[in-house]
Amino acid sequence: MKENFDFLMPSVNFFGKGVIKKIGDRAKMLNMSKPLIVTDKFLRGMDNGPVAQTLASLDEAGVSYAIYDGVEPNPKIRNIKEAKQVYLDNGCDSIITIGGGSSHDAGKGTGILLTNGDDITALAGIETLENPLPPLMAVNTTAGTASELTRHCVITNEETKLKFVVVSWRNVPLVSFNDPMLELDVPKGLTAATGMDTFVQAIEPYVSTNRNELTDGQCIQAIRLVEDSLREVVANGHNVEARTKMVEAEMLGGMAFNNADLGYVHAMAHQLGGQYDAPHGVCCAMLLPIVEKYNIQACPERFAELAEIMGENTDGLSTRDAADLAIKAMRQMCDDVNIPRSIKSIGAKPEDFELMAENALKDGNAFSNPRKGTKEEIVALFQEAYDAE
Ligand SMILES: [Fe+2]
User: Fold this and answer.
1) How far apart are CA 143 and CA 178, in angstroms?
2) What is the C-alpha to C-alpha distance for residues 137 and 26, in angstroms, rounded to an integer?
3) CA-CA distance, 106 to 180, in Å (whole number)?
4) Which of 84, 123, 180, 220 is a plausible cystine mate for 128, CB 3.0–4.6 Å?
5) Cβ atoms < 10 Å from Cβ of 141
6) What is the tens place of the pLDDT at every residue in 197-248?
7) Phi, psi at 362, each rounded to 5°
8) Which Pfam families does the UniProt entry name for this protein (predicted)?
9) Is the pLDDT of residue 1 over 90?
10) How far is the CA of 324 from the centre of ligand 1 (A)?
C-alpha cells in the first residue's frame, strides 16, 4: 500500500450516450486548429461509425483536420513514424485518437516522436519523457485497455518483436470520450478479449504493491461491473445497459492501474503480444489464472477478498481456500467468454520462453507485482500457460 501518491487521469472525461457530439466544441476550446486524427481503416470505413461521428462534430465546429488511418493491432514503430509524417506534412498542431488501445497508443507514440525525439525505444520505461506531447484527445471505442485515460503507451518494435511500454504522466490525454453507443457493433471476439483486459486491469492493481485506498475502491466496483455485464455483452452486444456498465468498469480499472500499476500478467502478455502479434486481451486472459495462482502466497488475504468481490461463497473457508476460489472465478470467466486456455492457440513456442521471461522482468509493469519472480519462475509460468487444457 502506498501512502503518498500522485493520482493521474485526464482533466475532462466525457461519458455517456451521445457525448461524441461535444468533441468539435471541445477541440475549439483547446485551440486545436488542425488535429491529426489517428485511427484504423476499419473504423474509418464504417458508415456513421466513430470516425464519421467525430468528423461530423469537427466539421460543425469549423475545425479542420488531417487523417492517419494506418494503425495496426499492436501498433508498430512504422505506424507512428508514418503518422508523424502526415502530421508534419499537413501542418497539424494536435492529435485526436479514435479507436481502442491501438489507436490511443499509436497517437501517444506519434506525439512522443514529435516532441521527444525519434528513438522511442530509448524512452521505454517509467517517466522518461522530458517534453510535453501535442494536445491530445482520445475517443474510445472498446472496453478496453483504458488507454484513453492512462499514462501508458505500448508500442511494438516490428524488427525485434519486442513490445515495450513508455509510462509517463505526459502521455495522459487532456480529454477522453467514452460513448457506449460507439461500442454496440464491436464483434463478439473483440468484445470478449477487450473485456478480459478490463477484468485483468481491475485485478492486477488490487494486488499491486503500489495500490492505495482510492484505487482499491475503483478495482472493487470495476470487478463487480465486469462480473455483472461481460458475459451479457459478449452474448448480446446491443444491450446498451450492459455496454454502459462495461465502459464504467473500463474507466474505473483504468483509473486504478494508472495509479496503482499492474503486474506480471501484463508484463508477460506484452511478450506474447510482441512475439506472436496476438491480441492483448486474449494474452492477458490466458495468463490471468496462472499468474494470479502464483501470486497468492504474496497476499492470500487480498485474493480471499477478490473471491468475495467476484461473488464466490467463502463462508467458513480458510483464507487460502477462499483465495483459490478467486482463481476458479477467473478461469470460469475466461471459459464463459470463450478464451482459449493454452497459449499454443496464438502460436507460442517453448524455445522463446527464456528470452520472453527475461524481457517480462524488465517490462514497465513488472515492478509492482506482489510476488517477485526469478527468470526460471517466469519460464515455468509460460510453460504452464502452454500446457493448459
Ligand atoms: Fe491491458
Assistant:
1) 9
2) 9
3) 22
4) 123
5) 28
6) 999 999 999 999 999 999 999 999 999 999 999 999 999 999 999 999 999 9
7) -95, -10
8) ADH_Fe_C, Fe-ADH
9) no
10) 23
Q: Which residues are within 8 A (CB) of 257 and not within 5 positions of it... i.e. 6 or more apart?
A: 146, 150, 201, 202, 204, 205, 208, 215
**DSSP SS3 for 95:** strand
The domain tally of the chain equals 2
- Of 183, 208, 232, which marks where a domain is finished? 183
> Residue length, the chain?
389
Query: Ligand 1 is a single-atom ion; what residues have CB below 5 A from it?
Result: 145, 197
Residue in the structure block whose three cell numbers are 521471461: 357
Domain boundary among 152, 183, 214: 183
Q: Say how many Å lie between the CA of residue 200 and the centre of ligand 1.
A: 7
Going from the Cα of 40 to the center of ligand 1, the distance in angstroms, rounded, reads 19
* CA dist 196 → 97, 285, 295, 377 (Å): 22, 6, 19, 24
Tell me the Cα Rg of the chain: 20
How many whole angstroms from 111 Cα to the centroid of ligand 1? 21
Ligand 1 center to 387 CA (angstroms): 23
pTM value surpassing 0.90: yes
Q: Where does residue 47 rank: exposed (0-12), middle (13-18), buried (19+ CB within 10 A)?
A: exposed
Domain that holds residue 41: 12-183
- Give me the residue label for grid cell 519523457: 129
- How far does residue 383's CA lie from ligand 1's centre (Å)? 21
Give mean pLDDT, residues 38-59: 97
Same domain, 73 and 196: no
Cα dist from 126 to 79, 122, 364, whole Å: 22, 11, 7
Residue 2 is assigned to a structural domain of this protein: no
